[in-house]
Structure formats: structure tokens, C-alpha cells
Amino acid sequence: MKSEGVLKADIHCVNPNYPEVLGTPCEPDLPQAELAVLIVPTSLTVDYLRMAIAKGYEGAIVISGGFGEVGGRRLKDLIPDLGGMRMLGPNTLGVVDTYSGVFTFFAPFRKGGRENLPRPKRGSLAVISQSGQLGVALYDELCSSGPGVRAIVTLGNAEDVNIAESVEYFAQDPLTSAILIYAEGSSEGRSLMDAVRRARENGKPVIFLLGGVTQVGKRATSSHTASVLSSSFVVTQALRQAGAYVVSSLEDALDAAKAAVMIKSDPGSRIAVLTNSGGQGVLAADALSSMGFTLPDLSSSQRLIALKSSGAIPPISSIANPIDVTGGAGDDGLLAAYSALMEDSSVDSVLLIPTHHALPITLGLPAKIAAARAKPTVVSELGSSELAELMRAAYDSLGLPSYPSSERAARALHAVRWLAANPGTWTLGRSARGGLEVRGELWPDLVDALASMGFDVPEWSWVNSPGDWPGDRYPAVLKVHAPSLVHKTEAGAVIVGIRDAREMDEAVRRLAPIARSASGRLYAQRMVRGVELRVGLVRDHDFGCVIDVGLGGVVTELIEDHSARVAPVTEGEALEMLSELRLRPLLEGYRGMPRADMHRLSSAIAAFSDAACSPGISELEVNPLIVDGPRIYAVDARASLFK
Predict the structure, then answer these.
(1) Distance, CA of 408 to CA of 120 (rounded, Å)
(2) DSSP structure class, residue 593
(3) pLDDT of 544-574, one tens digit each?
(4) Which of 135, 366, 592, 630 pairs with 20 at a CA distance of 20 to 30 A?
(5) CB 12, CB 31: distance < 8 Å
(6) pTM as predicted
(7) Angle, alpha carbons 153-249-231 (nearest 5°)
């Protein structure tokens, strides 16, 4: 980079054992400079860092490994005070900055007479990767056939400079238009959410690829970066709450990033598929429909009908949508149909499949399409032939993101649509009021607290004998109150559907021995019916208080239907969580069931998430929370308190 005139800074090579490196003289010790890039044995790393600190260096990139990632001591523990110097790494490959010319990857550009890495290609996509070698591979892909990069930062062990700080930097960087992140976990939690949210507020899409989300993945990341996700579900939900588009594959990450860089406006939900290959058009339509897009019927489009009548597109063309102009159409036919779609008010975006295999299609088509583009457009060019690659490269160079399959093109369009529709609901620096006081860990101890948060509490009382329960409060439920009984149903410590005093007498007779053996006592509730939900708050290691809403009752773990957010949540976020549940129709009056008061329910969930995030509470769960029209009954609850 220095020889090409991109890097303007002076370079000093430090090695006491060699006179020069690639024509640059070697110096025996660190000179006065701003940045140290350390590629030395582990045993020498601390000494060189101390020298850099003493000489007032502003930063150090520690490529050397052999520390916490392999079970050794953390470098930050060996040098706890960096003296104001910032450190990237250790166990990193450092930084590529295509604008300043800083390039610390030590992979060669050529190897064995062939290209090993492409030359840097300037773009506006910033990449942050915990993995160094993956960062190199991303650089290869993005600079070979992708949109180029603004910069790539590989964090390694991230003992000083971390993910949140890196996102924050690029959120403010005028040369960055989108951010792609690969991470295997983050201890920054809410700081990362703040950074992602700031990027979104500044108009910069954020694509996040999570690694280590399976048990095998967790073992791999533990040995690689000494970082383990506390919960992939919590991380995913938290990042989406902040406005990040979270993907689970490298392919989707790269495809989404390319589309996010090239498509600057909301692609909308109404898509036209234009192709000269009927089969690929059908596959594209299937993919788009599965992602929530609509394909408006264009069979009555006067413009398309006129094109068929005039012969501008073949008379056998299908214009219903997908629009198949058949393999007989050339550049001009595809362009005519595409131009008609640009003027059709019922179409927001276009997925174009102009397969190059058809004889009349030429390399001049991409430029013609780009000149006519007035709406977001993604392109699918299937094939690995020389011409297929040339066509995709041509579309990409003209700002039309292209992909080797219609399904990938559809997923990329979905990513841009999601980002446009979901800027994030997280607010910077959000914190809970807390202040909830509880007298114990079980439901009878929590009733006042539950009522204070807006939940209904069914009538109840302690029961020593059947006469303690009034005759007008049937049907009833009898339960054992004992701290050792975590799950009453499994322990046989609850009887439901008690209809009268005789049945209450039998229930007391059955449960009294269980209560005595558990050093507990009995209490009864008026029985209520409705949709069983569960709402809980837990302390996550990385994100602090997290609120989770889902299906309640005894099948909670069996049927995983739930949604989570970092607490406290707003009423709007609580409503959004409820809308994500598969059981949502039950709350909306399914088959004559009472329609839930969603405003009151979401308000209570928001209040719960705010109040329950109190210093003394580790966990608090209401399960079941029974919703019966306007009433929301907290039927059972349990808290875990910090001792």
C-alpha cells in the first residue's frame, strides 16, 4: 500500500535479527511512532507493548496469539494499564482501511504465481469480525466480486477495543454506508445495542452474523475466542430490537450486505418478477411469497398488453406476474417490459431474471437496465460460466445487486425490506425504574406486587379446613404453598376444578400431607379460565434484565412459542412481542373466544418489565397469566431474590 502511494504514513520495520525486510531497513528497537503492529512470539509481546506505552504510542495491533484464547492469561491482565494507548487484539489480523491504506493482513496478494488476495477495492461497507481468518475471507469475497469495503476490523480476543466501540466508530464515519458484523458473543450487551441503534439512526443498515449458536458452535468459539453466547435467542432478539438484521449463514450475510449497500430506498412489499425463463420466475415467486411479499396481478396492465400487441415483446409472453417474455425476447424486449414496470404504480420493486443463456441477450443489457432503473431492483443470473460471471459483475458495477439464484436474490430483497421497516425500537441509554418490593418468592407473597403492576389477582385465602373457603367462590383451585415445590403440577401439589365444599374437603385431605412434608400450607383461589400466557424477567449475563413472553401453563417448555426483549420494554414493544406469538389468534377472538384487551395486556407487561428489574430481584415469572377478555389474571408466580 505504501509503494502504491495509498498509505502516506512512514513505516518502520523492527527486528534486531535482520538488516531489512522487502527493502525496508530494520531497526533494533521501537522508534517514535503512532501505531505498533506486533507479530512477535507470545513471550515478547508484553515487553514490546510496554515499550510502546513508554514511548507514547496511540495504538497497538497485537496479532500475536497464545493468550486467553488457548487458556493462557489474558494480555490485559498482564498489562492492566495501557497508559491511554488503545489495543486491538490480541490474536487478531488487525485492520484493512482502503482509504488510509493501512493493511495489516499478513496473507500475500499472490501465492504460487496466482492471485491469493485481490487488491483493495474501495467501497462503503464496514466489516467487523471477531475471527481474523474469516475477516480475510470476507475481504477476499467483497473485494473480488462484491461491492468492496470501507474497512475491515478483526477483533480477536477484544481485550480492549471491542465490538460496541467498533460499531460506534463506523456509525459516525462519513465513509461508511452499511456495517456487517460477525461475532460469536458480546459481553458489551446494552452498549452494543446502543451502538447498533446509533448506526440505524444515522441511516446505516447493520447486518449481524452470529456464530456459536449451537452446542457444537459454542465449543468451537470457546476454544477460538474464549467467548460463549449466553443465549443465542436473547442475543438475536436484542440485536433485532436495536435494529440489526440478524442472519444465520455467511451466504445470507454477504448477500444482504451487498443489497444494503446498493439499494438506498425501501423496496416495498409489491414485487414484479420479470424474466425470460418461466421456471426461474416461478421459483422466484414462491420465494418472495414465502417471505411476505405480494406479486400484484399485472395481466390487465395496458402498457404490457400494448407491448405484446406491438410485438415489442413476444405475443406468447405471460404478463400475469411473474412476467415471462420467453427466451425469444432480446435486450430490447426485456428493457421494454422493465421500463413499463418502472411506470406501474402497483409495483414497488423488481426482481429481474434476464438469463444470459437465451441467444438474443447480450452483454449490453446491464447498462440498458441501469439507465432505465427508477425503482429498487435485484438481479438473478444463474450459472458459473464465464459469461454468467461477466453479467453478474456488470450488474454489480452498475449498482444492481446480482445473485446466482432467484432464491438468494429474493432473500437479499427481503433483507433490505426488513431493514427499511425495522429501524429498531431500542432507545439509547434505556434503564429501568425498578423499585418493586416483594415480601417473598411465592405467589401469596407477591400478590400486592402483581396488582401494583396492573395484573388482576383472583380471590384467594389461606385454607386450613374446607370451611375456610366461602361457598360463593366455586369453582376453585387448591394449592400447596412451599418454597421447595418449584413445579406444583409435577409434585401433585395442586388440584383444579373444585366445585363445592365436599370436593374441597377431599382436596384438603389429599394435599395436607404434601404441605406438611414440605413445611408448607394450603391456599385456595377462585378458578379462572382463558388463554394461558407466561411473562418472565431474568438477568442475562450480557444484556442485564430480559423480558420474555410466551405460551404459559405446564407445556411452556414443550411448545416453544415465545418472544424476548431487553428490559424495560415499552408498551409498543410489548404489543410487538405478543404479535410474534403463534398463539396470537387466541388473543384476537379465535372461534368466538373473548378478544383480549391488548392495550391493557401490553401495558401490564411493560410495567412488569420496568418494575421487576429491581436490584433485589434475580428472576420473576408469572405463569400462568390467564387472559380472559379484558381481565388478565396473575394466577401463579415465583421470584428469585438476590441473597
Answers:
(1) 26
(2) P
(3) 999 999 988 766 666 778 899 999 999 999 9
(4) 135
(5) yes
(6) 0.93
(7) 85
